[in-house]
């Protein structure tokens, strides 16, 4: 008699428990446990299955006949960049993203390009009817591409259909949460189903050599819903991000067995689908607010490509007991560190101010090289002094207040020159590497203190909300706009006098 094992599986992280409980101890989520049959079994009795003798198989050597064209270009440069040069045969990719961000659009475009290039490309939608997918393709002007289309959700049916004829080069499954296999009894969308379906599709990909793209939805906290377990099974995880209100979309590799994970692909959502953005700096800087305080241009590197992006800061007196620190697009702990260094070494007192930091264009920066640009934007906002509009900034700030050199100085400078910037503020020790970039004036800084003094000399502290307080330099705190140049502009001027 087959023994069915019922257990309670967290729909968020896949942890299994023998009893129901309100909170998953593995991921800390509440009310995510659902009853599932986790034997993963067919109807065959356990005793029979476990006694099956293992089949012997052929072991291969490292040399030998290699598969032709190991990588297959998608026809979209930005997508290829993120995958590391195209789809690898027999690999499985998971593309995650918020609903409505454009995953189906991106993959419809990719399959159409592949089909037009003469490959067998299949698009299986478990969410939309064939007519809806056709409608989208029509809108994208791709209706004539020989893509093979189906609206199916049964993994077994899909695999038997695709096993016939020539092996497809690309199969898109939109989305993995809608797939189900009859080897497990749980409902579609549950962790067990998603895992089992993904397993089957992955096995099919490895065996047939077809590249499979699984689409996965993301929950509000940024996790790929339910099938977080799938992340470990696939070869690559790409995340498609962007603000719904903005046109930019960024494709980022979160995991990649066959390529780098620091590359990004930039797209723009238009009425005719996704347009590739080959020069993202132009896009991120296109709506710059020239001449307003609190913005600095950061010369960053995303993967192999330099990207210039605006960092915006707002430092304003707080009305709260604990001032707010809000950051979008950058690491909050790096912001805390930069603020601490500004306070400890440069006399910039920010404990009475709310601090907001934003990376324009929806980009997310992970590089420590952004420290210097962030610090410049913060100080610029605090003293109400715009930074020179033709300057870019990069450099890592150490806890001692020193500005340390970062990698790829010359690539950053080249991009700055290309986009018409005339000035670079960079770490002193990077000067050697910066050497011969024509048309750029190099402004090297050894420590954060000198940068702060420099910016401070250009501006005046923001008006205080509490005008009864005495400023230590003579009560001109209400004045805005650049003050006359002062020789001994020490950062100490910004210290709050609270007592
Ligand atoms: P979609 O690819 O369906 O998103 P997902 O599969 O990630 O849920 O894209 C949906 C959004 O994209 C929708 O709000 C409309 C917009 N869109 C355009 O702006 N232009 C287009 O050409 C297409 C096809 C969609
Ligand atoms: Mg979709």
From TrEMBL:
The middle region has homology to RecA with ATPase motifs including the RadA KNRFG motif, while the C-terminus is homologous to Lon protease. The gene is radA. Keywords: ATP-binding, DNA damage, DNA repair, DNA-binding, Hydrolase, Metal-binding, Nucleotide-binding, Stress response, Zinc, Zinc-finger. DNA-dependent ATPase involved in processing of recombination intermediates, plays a role in repairing DNA breaks. Stimulates the branch migration of RecA-mediated strand transfer reactions, allowing the 3' invading strand to extend heteroduplex DNA faster. Binds ssDNA in the presence of ADP but not other nucleotides, has ATPase activity that is stimulated by ssDNA and various branched DNA structures, but inhibited by SSB. Does not have RecA's homology-searching function. Belongs to the RecA family. RadA subfamily. Residues 458-499 are annotated as: Disordered. SUPFAM superfamilies: P-loop containing nucleoside triphosphate hydrolases (SSF52540), Ribosomal protein S5 domain 2-like (SSF54211). Residues 354-499 are annotated as: Lon-protease-like. Residues 463-486 have a biased composition (Basic and acidic residues). This is DNA repair protein RadA. ATP binds at residues 97-104. GO terms for molecular function: ATP binding; ATP-dependent DNA damage sensor activity; damaged DNA binding; hydrolase activity; zinc ion binding. GO terms for biological process: recombinational repair. A motif (RadA KNRFG motif) lies at residues 255-259. SMART domains: AAA. It comes from the Bacteria. It holds the Pfam family AAA_25.
